[in-house]
Every structure is written in C-alpha cells, then in structure tokens.
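Bumping my old thread because nobody answered last time. Still need a sequence for this structure:
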C-alpha cells in the first residue's frame, strides 16, 4: 500500500471521524477540553502507528492538559477504535497539538497592523 493510495486515504478519513467521536463523546477525563477537534490523521501504510493532529481551543495550559489526558486515555481510545473500525492492526496513536490555527490568527493580526500603519 502506497502512502497516498486511495485505501490509505479512506482509512485516514475513517480513523479521523471515529477518533473525533470518541474524544467528544466518550472521554471522561476532566483534563481533556470539550473544545478539542481532530484536524488530521495519518495512519502509517503498515497500520502500526497513527499520528493525530488535534486542535484545542484555549491557552497553553489547556492544550498541555488535554494532550496529557489524551495520552493517558490512549489505551481506551485504541480499544474503542478497534471495536468501531475493522482494521488488520489497531494503530498505536500519537497525539500532536496543531498550532496552525493560532499561527494563522497571529499572522492575520500582524497583516492587519501593517495595513493600518500603511494607511496612516
């Protein structure tokens, strides 16, 4: 299976959908923010590992706490993923906090500031 094959793309999409459902509805850990979304998932072609990029609305502490909560619940999440998605192997999940939304907001503010200074 090639990295960008149709099969791998379908698997990534299905795992992303199921991970989002599990995180939103079934994680009871108070550290995990209710405003957590799964932005992207990349399952390795051998189905052994999975990188999941998550976005957490809030400050650095909320992001850190959510990441700790997700990492501690990884066994439960993996078990639920195995129950809901029929894969040969259930991948080991690595959660990564995605900073791209915060970076985009910061860049947008900087561009607005430059435009305001240019007009004055």
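Sorry it took so long. Here it is:
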């Amino acid at each position: 299976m090639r990295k960008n094959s149709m099969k791998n793309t379908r698997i990534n999409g299905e795992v992303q959908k199921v991970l989002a459902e599990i995180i939103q509805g079934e994680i009871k850990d108070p550290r995990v923010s209710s405003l957590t979304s799964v932005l992207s998932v990349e399952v390795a072609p051998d189905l052994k590992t999975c990188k999941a990029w998550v976005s957490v609305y809030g400050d650095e502490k909320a992001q850190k706490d959510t990441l700790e909560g997700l990492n501690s619940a990884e066994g439960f999440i993996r078990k639920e993923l195995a129950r809901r998605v029929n894969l040969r192997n259930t991948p080991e999940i690595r959660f990564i906090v995605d900073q791209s939304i915060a970076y985009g907001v910061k860049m947008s503010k900087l561009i607005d500031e430059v435009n305001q200074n240019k007009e004055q």
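The first strand starts at residue 36 and ends at 43. Let me know if any region looks off to you.
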